[in-house]
Amino acid sequence: MAVHSPRPNDDSVLEAERVDTKPPPMYRVLLLNDDYTPMDFVVGILQQVFAMTREQATGVMLQVHRTGMGTCGVFTKEVADTKVAQVAELAASYQHPLQCTMEPN
User: Fold this and answer.
1) Which of 10, 20, 37, 70 has the smallest count of CB within 10 Å of its CB?
2) How far is CA 13 from CA 16, 31, 77, in A?
3) pTM
């Protein structure tokens, strides 16, 4: 049985194989309108959970109020799941019926 050893004068260069990676699927996080959750509470949620300025949060809150839903942001699935859960937990702790959901972007 012959064993091949690398040639000492082998000048070949190994090249990395190019792998095309796709970005992860993204999800829109939405707040849904209801007739009971105070507008100030919604603005606070948007500032706390989604790191919006007061002006941005007020704009999204008004969109939710006028159209029935508003986009809070677009995130990877794991981040969107976490934000939906945070909103649900905060709303429940204050006994507000605020609903938050996510959908593929």
Assistant:
1) 20
2) 10, 55, 40
3) 0.80
pLDDT value at residue 95: 98
Query: 69 pairs with which residues across the strands?
Result: 32
For tokens 């969107």, what's the residue? 80
Question: Quick one: which of 97, 101, 100, 102 has its CA closest to 38?
Answer: 97
Higher per-residue pLDDT: 2 or 55: 55
Per the DSSP assignment, residues forming a β-bridge with 104 are 27
Place of tokens 């948007």: 46
* Main-chain phi, psi angles of 61, to 5 degrees: -60, -40
Place of tokens 């941005």: 56
- Between CA 12 and CA 15 the distance in angstroms is 9
Whole-number Cα distances in Å, 15 to 2, 4, 9, 19, 52 = 28, 22, 18, 12, 45
pLDDT (tens digit per residue) in 93-104: 999 999 999 999
Q: SS3 of 91, please?
A: helix
